[in-house]
C-alpha cells in the first residue's frame, strides 16, 4: 500500500473514531432518566395526606390541620424548599411553569406525563381550596419565623401553622394574580384529560384575577413578616397582573384579557430579561409572542429578542455572566433558579422562532433557533454533570451529586425507621452533622455552584445546597424537550 493510501486509511479511521466520540458526547446524559426524577421530586415536597400512589415512601402525612385557625380546610399543597412553610407566591409560580412545561412538551414525556399531571393537580386542588371564599385569597400557611427556628420533619411539626390571608382591605395582587395564572395555565393542561375540572379551574382563575385587579396592593404590607424577608415582592405586582391576564387570554380567547395585556404592558417598568417567582417580564413577552410574531414593530417581539440577546455568551448586550465552566449567572442566591427558568424560555422561544422562520439579531451576532437550543442545552448538561467538578446538581442523577442538601425531611430518619417524635431542637444534630442525608430527595435540583464552578456540599451552605420547587418546574419542560431527541 502506498504512502498516500496508508495516510487515507489512517485519516478515515481517525475520522471514524472522532465520529464515535461525537455521538457519545451527544448522548452524554439520559434526559429521560433526569425527567423521571425531576417529576418524582415533587412527591418529596408534598404536604397533607399522602395518596396510596406515593412513591417517595420515606415521606408521611403532615400538616393535617392546616387552615383550622380560620375555619378552612387547607390541607395539601407543597413545601417550597427545605423548610415546612407553604409560601403560595412561589408555589403558584411553580404551578404555572409546571403547567407550561406540560403544555409545551407533554407529548415527549411518555409514561412520565401521568406523574406530571398528578404533580400539577396536587397543587391546583390546593389552590382551589385557598381561593374558595369570595373576597379573599389565602397567601401562605405556616409562620416562617417559628418554622425556621426548628429543624424537624414535616411529620413532627409543632410550629405555628398561621394562615395568612389577603382580602379587599389588605390586598395581595402579586400572589393572587400568580394563582390566577397557575389555574388558567393548568386549565389548558387538563382540557383533554378532565374537561369538567378544566372548566372549574378556568372559572376560578377569572374570579381570582378580578379580585387581584380590583383590589390592588402588595402582600408585602398585608401579611407583613409572613412574606418578608423570605419571599418579598421586590419587583412590584403589575407584572403578575399582566402575566395572569396573558394566561387567561390564552385559555379563554376573550379579547378583554388581551386588551389588558397590551394596555398595561406599555406602562410596565422593570427588565425584559428577568423571569422567576418575583418577575414575569420575559415570560410574558415569550408567552404572547406567537400571537404577534408577524406584527411589524411589536414591543413583545422586541423585548423577547432583547431577552435572547441578554443571554447569549457572545452578544454585545449580554447582561449575565458565565462561569469558567459555562454556567450562566445572575445576582442573588440559588443561582440555578435562573439557569433552569431562562433555559426553558430559550427553548420555548426557539420553537416559536422556528415556526415563524425567524432568527434574532444581536448587533452583528445572529441567533438562529438552533443557537438558542444549544445555549439551553449547555445549561441543562452543566446541571446534570458536564462541569469542572463532574457533579450533577440533581440529587440521585449520575454517579456524583450533593449528599448533604439543606432539607429537613431528607436529612433526618424517616418515620418508618424512627417512629418516635423528634422535637423542634432535637433535630439540630442532623442539621450540623457532616454525614450524608438519610433519605434521598431524588430529582431535587439544589442552588448550585458559585461563579467559579465551586460547590460546598453542606447543609449550612444554604444558597448552594437548598432545593426549591421553582427550580425544578421549568427544568421539567427543558428535560422533556431534550428527551424528545431535539
TrEMBL record:
EC number: 3.2.1.4
GO annotation terms (biological process): cellulose catabolic process
SUPFAM superfamilies: Six-hairpin glycosidases
Domain named Glycoside hydrolase family: residues: 31-479
List of catalytic residues: 406
Top-level enzyme category: hydrolase
Record's signal peptide: 1-25
Family statement drawn from the similarity comment of this UniProt entry: Belongs to the glycosyl hydrolase 9 (cellulase E) family.
Keyword Secreted: no
A Gene Ontology molecular function term of the record: cellulase activity
Keyword DNA repair annotated: no
A Pfam family reported for this protein in Swiss-Prot or TrEMBL: Glyco_hydro_9
Keywords: Carbohydrate metabolism, Cellulose degradation, Glycosidase, Hydrolase, Polysaccharide degradation, Signal
Protein name (database record): Endoglucanase
UniProt catalytic activity: Endohydrolysis of (1->4)-beta-D-glucosidic linkages in cellulose, lichenin and cereal beta-D-glucans
Amino acid at each position: 500500500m502506498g504512502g498516500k493510501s496508508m495516510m487515507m486509511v489512517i485519516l478515515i479511521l481517525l475520522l471514524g473514531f472522532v465520529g464515535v466520540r461525537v455521538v457519545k458526547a451527544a448522548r452524554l446524559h439520559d434526559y429521560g432518566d433526569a425527567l423521571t426524577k425531576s417529576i418524582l421530586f415533587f412527591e418529596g415536597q408534598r404536604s397533607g395526606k399522602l395518596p396510596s400512589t406515593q412513591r417517595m415512601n420515606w415521606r408521611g402525612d403532615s400538616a393535617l390541620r392546616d387552615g383550622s385557625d380560620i375555619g378552612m380546610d387547607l390541607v395539601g399543597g407543597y413545601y417550597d424548599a427545605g423548610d415546612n412553610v407553604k409560601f403560595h407566591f412561589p408555589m403558584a409560580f411553580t404551578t404555572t411553569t409546571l403547567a407550561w412545561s406540560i403544555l409545551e412538551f407533554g407529548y415527549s414525556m411518555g409514561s412520565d406525563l401521568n406523574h406530571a399531571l398528578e404533580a400539577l393537580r396536587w397543587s391546583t386542588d390546593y389552590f382551589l381550596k385557598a381561593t374558595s371564599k369570595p373576597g379573599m385569597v389565602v397567601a401562605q400557611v405556616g409562620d416562617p419565623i417559628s418554622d425556621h427556628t426548628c429543624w424537624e420533619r414535616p411529620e413532627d411539626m409543632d410550629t405555628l401553622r398561621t394562615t395568612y390571608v389577603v382580602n379587599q382591605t389588605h390586598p395581595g395582587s402579586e400572589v393572587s394574580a400568580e394563582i390566577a395564572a397557575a389555574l388558567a395555565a393548568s386549565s389548558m393542561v387538563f382540557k383533554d384529560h378532565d374537561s369538567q375540572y378544566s372548566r372549574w379551574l378556568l372559572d376560578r382563575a377569572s374570579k381570582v384575577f378580578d379580585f387581584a385587579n380590583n383590589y390592588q396592593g402588595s402582600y408585602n404590607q398585608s401579611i407583613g413578616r409572613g412574606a418578608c424577608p423570605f419571599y418579598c415582592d421586590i419587583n412590584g405586582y403589575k407584572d403578575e397582573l399582566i402575566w395572569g391576564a396573558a394566561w387567561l387570554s390564552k385559555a379563554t380567547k376573550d379579547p378583554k384579557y388581551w386588551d389588558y395585556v397590551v394596555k398595561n404592558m406599555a406602562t410596565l417598568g422593570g427588565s425584559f430579561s428577568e423571569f422567576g417567582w418575583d418577575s414575569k417580564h420575559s415570560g410574558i413577552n415569550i408567552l404572547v409572542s406567537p400571537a404577534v410574531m408577524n406584527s411589524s414593530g411589536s414591543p413583545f417581539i422586541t423585548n423577547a429578542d432583547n431577552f435572547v440577546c441578554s443571554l447569549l455568551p457572545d452578544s454585545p448586550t449580554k447582561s449575565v455572566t458565565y462561569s469558567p465552566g459555562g454556567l450562566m449567572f445572575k445576582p442573588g442566591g440559588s443561582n440555578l433558579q435562573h439557569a433552569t427558568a431562562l433555559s426553558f424560555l430559550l427553548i420555548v422561544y426557539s420553537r416559536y422562532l422556528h415556526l415563524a422562520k425567524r432568527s434574532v439579531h444581536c448587533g452583528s451576532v445572529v441567533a438562529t433557533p438552533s443557537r438558542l437550543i444549544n445555549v439551553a442545552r449547555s445549561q441543562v448538561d452543566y446541571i446534570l454533570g458536564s462541569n469542572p467538578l463532574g457533579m450533577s446538581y440533581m440529587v440521585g442523577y449520575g454517579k456524583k451529586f450533593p449528599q448533604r442538601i439543606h432539607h429537613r425531611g431528607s436529612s433526618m430518619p424517616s418515620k418508618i425507621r424512627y417512629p418516635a417524635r423528634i422535637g423542634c431542637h432535637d433535630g439540630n444534630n442532623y442539621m450540623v452533622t457532616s454525614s450524608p442525608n438519610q433519605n434521598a430527595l431524588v430529582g431535587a435540583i439544589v442552588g448550585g455552584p458559585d461563579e467559579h464552578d465551586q460547590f460546598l456540599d453542606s447543609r449550612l451552605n444554604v444558597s448552594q445546597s437548598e432545593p426549591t420547587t421553582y427550580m425544578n418546574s421549568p427544568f421539567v419542560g427543558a428535560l422533556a424537550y431534550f428527551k424528545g431527541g431535539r
